[in-house]
Structure formats: structure tokens, C-alpha cells
Amino acid sequence: MKIGEYEQMMSYLTRPKSTTPIQPRENLKYGTVPGKGNSKINFDPEIDTYRKRVQETIDGKKTNKYIYSEPGQSLEDFKKIKPVRSTGADDATVRVRQYVDNWTKNWFDNNLKDYGVKDFDAMIDGLSSDWQLELESGDVPKASGKFNLSTPELNLPNITTLADAKIKPNLTPFKYNDVTFYKNLEGTNSLKNKTLAQFKKVFYKDQINTNPQLREGLNKFFDFMSADKRGLYKKIDGKTIKDFMNTEVSDEVKFLLDPEISGLDKASKKEVFNSYSDFADNYNKFTEDKVRLKAVQAETEAVAKAGEKTAEQYKKVKADIAKQNDVLAKMSVKEIANNKELLNSVRLSINPKTGDVSYTNYTVNDPKGKQALTDLELAEKIKQKAKNKNFYVTEHIGKKSFNKTNLAYPNNIQSANYMSNAQLENARRFLINSENRNTPAAQNLDKTLEDLKLTIRGSEYGGKPIGNKIPIVFDSKTNRSNIVDSQLLNNKTVDALKNQRGFISTELLGAQAMADGIKKYGPAAKQIAKTSLSIPGLSSVFEVPFIPGYQEEGYTPKEIATQMVTGGFGVPFKDIQEKARFVKDKGLGTFLTDAFNKKMISQNIRPALNTPVDFGASQDLTEQEQAALNLYDQDAQEVINTRRKIQADKYKRLEEMEDFEDEMFRDGAMNGGIMKLKKNDK
Q1: How far apart are CA 506 and CA 512, in angstroms?
Q2: Buried (b) or exposed (e) across 2-33, using 16+ Cβ within 10 A?
């Protein structure tokens, strides 16, 4: 008797006495319980008991019987009672699975040693053949009819996988050489390859574990390939990469590393090689270098397509970005720690799925578990990266993977750091989905990137600039990019060099001293380059080659000096002030301010202000505001252009007169006195 039946019987025997003669339960008159879903349930009101006829399965045998409700049990609770079902068949399947798993483990233990690194296919054939012989022996226990002992096509042992364990919790997935099998599927070639990939990881890990020469060869290969190989053809230890591969790398190592012939794909290789502490780090560095190499190859091809002149311009802008590492490396740790904008650019974290922005990198909330750093500790890390010349990097505005024709153009790059570079990619992954671009998350991303002066552009992201929206202009005369100049760290020092009215002060910059030197040498830029024009705390050396270009544009000596000490920032700033004063003198200063304010309203908030989305359009301005803007863009600019043309002509005339020594050819009164250097001047 089952325990449940015994308890039911005892409950019935110990019930309160009744005046009705006791009848066997089966002889009592039950009435069918009315109601939907109750047709198989009976009820006897005299003993307050429900019953229903069920079919129980015990050790594979089916039996029909009644089950009864407990005293006081409600109809709903009684309906939930399930008939007793023995786990006999299930237990048999579990026993068979355990048998299959144990047999496979023993086969691996006894046979893997007989195969070499190139013998995976032979190993699989041997495993399949031996398993079929085992099935024919009759020693394999029986299971339910639904369980297949072999996989459908490869005829391999149907070992227990993670997928099986999820369906039946009392199963344990098969595991060998720390490789857990996740599924056995063979319906298509792709699924068959995924199934075989699991066996390959077991097989190749066993080869590495038991073959000292193979392991040593892998170590040697990853050590060499992870070494610094700047310059594609640079030799290491007297060998080029080609020489090393031909003379130092065994055929077994080459076989294992080649996914085409070994079948060990990228994901499987990563899992296999990362399980060995002696070469995991070098393997990861090697794979990262391969990614970089592909990027270098794409860039090299783009540079070749761009043409010599464009390529040189592109390289010069990249050099300006790289120089920022030197500027940052000279700053003190405290100065860096006080630059919250810089710290935030490193702590920036963008979720590629949701577009959410946070500043959790290097904090206790870092999702990737990087070490939490204080501001000073992070500043030390930043300074060290700058010393290593890998804090600031060149970021392509048009992704390299798109292979666009303008990849190596000077107006297709911007400055980013090693962290904002990665987060820009996360932002792109979010924004490339058109459904994400009109969300609050996208608007927040736009504002965040704008604050960091970074930009995302391209038709694949909706065609409108995201983040930094300035029209990107490359000046071919000075080889300067305005978006890169706006991102340069040394431009942040300009704020400290303004006078009380907020204007750039050439006196504070020390530009007057430099201007005097330029006056002395006139257009002879080569002589200036040889002259020491040093200003405490600032360096003008990198600007010296641009002097001829500044002279061609008609800059005065003082303007050239200002450009040199501000990294090309000062004169454009001064021109803005001059044009604004021109408009103000015409009585339209306030209208110009209103026009600028309208042009600068964020596109995202314009609908709320009832202003057109196409901000900056002429129809968005009043007549007076448009007039002020025309004066600023046209008339005021024409005054500056005319003055500079005259100045440039004077430089040219002086250059043509360089061999004359007559005083009449000197222009001593020109804008403070640009003098021509006489040959006997020293």
C-alpha cells in the first residue's frame, strides 16, 4: 500500500461516527459534480469526499484506480492532485545517459594518446566506429523509446549536453578537458560543424597537454608575434616574420593555428588558448595585434588611393593629434586630476544596446570590473599612457570598416583618447539602428559627445552630425583641421591667457617678443626657424614651419606670433572679435547676438521652442538679424580680406627685393616696421 493510500484510509477510519451504516467507499453513491471541467469528478455529500478515476504508471505498467480527497479539501485543491507516476522509465534513461557519458570518457582516456595533432578526423571516425560496436555488443542498457543512443549523422555517442540538463535537472552535462558540451545538433552543415567544434576543443587541448614540443612551439610563436613589431618589415632578433615562420615554427603549430585546416575557429581558439596561463596573455596580444594590422592595412591602402598631397596632409593632422600626448605628459598629476572634463572622458561608458551614458569606468560600479581609481590615481594612469604615447589616438570619423574613399582624408579624422575612442564605437552601434535615433537616449548621447567635442557623421547614422556639429574645414595652407584644433589639449591653456575683457592678450602671450623677431627677419622664414623664440611655459617650435603659409594669408607679424603661441587658435578668435565690433559699430550688435543664439539652439529642443528644425536657415531670422549676419559674414570679412591681401602683397614684394640693399626698398613704417634682413646683418 502506498503512503498516500494509507493516510487516506486512516483519515476515513478515524472520521466522526455516523448513524449511517458504514459502506465500502466503492459502494457509496457519488454524484457527478456539476460545472465545466468536472465531468470526471464525483462527490458524496454524506462523507464530504471527492473522487476521480485516474491511470497510474508504476515501473512501466499502467493501472486504473480511484483517488479520494482529504477531509475538508476543496474541489479546486482536489483537482490539482496528480496521479502517481513511477519514474521507472525516466530512471532508465538517466542510467543510459550515464553509461554513454562514462563510456565516452573512458574512450578518450584510452585512445586520444594514439592520435597526432593532424588526426582529428581519424579520431572522430574511431570514436564513431567503436561506439557502434559497443551498441552491437548488447551491453548498453535499455532506455525509453524516445532516447537515441547515437547522434543522427555522425553516429557519435549521444552524450549529455547543457541543453539536456536544462530540460531534466537530474542530468549532469558531459565534460572533458574542461570543455562542457552545450548541444548535439547535426541537421545542417553549420550545426554539424558546431557539434564537431566541441570535440575539436577536447582533442586539441589534449594534444597541447600531452605534446611538450607542440606546447613549446606555441609558446615560442606567441612570444615572437606579441613582441613589438612597429613597422611591418622590421626585423626581430635578426629575423623577419616570414623568416621566423619558415625556420622556427613547426608544421604542427602552423596546422593548429590555421582555422581553414584545423577547423578550430576564432571562438574555439580563444577558449582553448586562454585556458593555458603560460601563453594566454601573449595569444590575446597577438590577436589584438592582428586586428590592428588589418586596420593598418586598410589605412595604408586608403593613403595610397588618396594621392601624395592628400596623404601628406592627412599625416600632418595625425601628427598634431599624436603631439598631444607630449603636452599631456608634461602636465603634473595634480593638474590632470583637476581637469574634470578629461577625467570624465576616460570614465565615460556608453551602453551599445540602450545608448545610456554613465561615468563608471574605473569606479566601483564599473561593469567590466576594472580597478576603482581615485582622481589622482586615474590622473597617474593618464599621465603614464601619455608618456607611452598611447593616450591620445586618431579617430576616423568615417569608420575604416566602411572602406569609404575619404578614409585617409585630413578632414575625416578627429582626436580621441583610448577610452572615448571605444565609447564612440558603442555609440555608433546604438545609433546605426534608425529606431534609436529619435529617443531620449540618442538626445543625451548627442549632448554628451558635443560636450566632449567628438562627432559621429555619415548617412548610416541619419545623415546629420551628432555631437560636435561644426562644419569640418581643413586649411591646405596651414595643414590644420578646425575640428582637431578644437579638440587639442593645449588650446585649453588659452583661457588663462585672456585679459579682463575676455579677449586674447598678445601681451600675456608674450607674442610681442616673438613679433619683434619676425619683424627682424621679415619673410625669411628659414632664418626664423633657426632663431630661438622661446616664451616661458609655451613652445612655438611646432608652428615655425607654418610661417610662410601665414605670410601668404597676409597675417601681420603680431598675428603670426599669436598663431604660433596659441597653436593656430588666436587669429581666428581675434577675427571673430573684429567682425563683431564692425557690426556693433553699424548699430546692429544686439541683432547679431540674437542671430547667433538662434543658430546655436540645439536641434533636439527647437520643436519645443516653436522654431524650425533646420536651424540656421535664413527664414528663421528677422530682417534685422539677417542684415547683421550678412554684415558679419560678408562686409566685415571683406575688410579683413582686403587688409590681408595688401599685407600679403607686401611680403611678396619684399621677397622679390631680397637682393637689394637700397634704403628705399625698406618698409620701415609698415604695420610697426617689417624690415628686410640685409646680407651683412647678423
Answers
A1: 7
A2: eeeeeebeeeeeeeeeeeeeeeebeeeebeeb
Residues 6+ apart with CB under 8 A from 338: none
Averaged confidence pLDDT in the chain: 74
Crossing angle (nearest 10°) for helices 120-136 and 88-111: 140
Nearest-angstrom CA–CA distance, 570 and 555? 12
Rounded to whole angstroms, the Cα distance separating 543 from 511 reads 13
pLDDT at 88: 52
Helix 418-431 / helix 440-451 crossing angle, nearest 10 deg: 150
Instruction: Give the CA count within 13 Å in the CB-facing half-sphere of 544.
Output: 17
Is the per-residue pLDDT at 500 higher than 80? no
- Give 454's DSSP letter: -
SS3 466: strand
In this structure, are residues 305 and 405 in contact, taking their beta carbons and an 8 Å threshold?
yes
- Gyration radius of the chain's alpha carbons: 40
Beta bridge pairs of residue 414:
395
Q: At what angle do helices 266-273 and 280-306 cross, to 10 degrees?
A: 140
Q: Which candidate, 508, 532, 118, 567, places its Cα nearest to that of 323? A: 567
Res 441: pLDDT: 93
